[in-house]
Known about the structure:
It is a single chain. By secondary structure, the protein is mainly β. It contains no helices and eleven strands. The strands form two sheets. Strands 2, 4, 5, 6, 9, 10 and 11 form a seven-stranded mixed sheet that branches. A hairpin with a 6-residue loop joins strand 4 (34-39) and strand 5.
Amino acid sequence: QVQLVESGGGLVQPGGSLRLSCACSGFTFSRYVMRWYRQAPGKERELVAGISSDGSTYYADSVKGRFTITRDDAKNTLYLQMRSLKPEETAVYYCNAGNAYWGQGTQVTVSS
């Protein structure tokens, strides 16, 4: 069955970095546009970044220059490198495949 399993979340101080991973199985990973979303308490889920099968990337304006999305098709894994994190970026971060499949999310808390 399809599985998307995020990892790498945690507590980080403002200005710190984290690297999220999303291990995927049960579908042809290399053919899918992959995305990271996040949802903060009381807010709607928002698109953070996306990467197509050819490696083209997209970033929300709020994270450009600080976040980097990559994929390893050999490992069926999606990554999100996050730098200079801000408290307002505290949220559950979700991995998405082709707007069809979702992971369970990983909590990122940015706080001193």
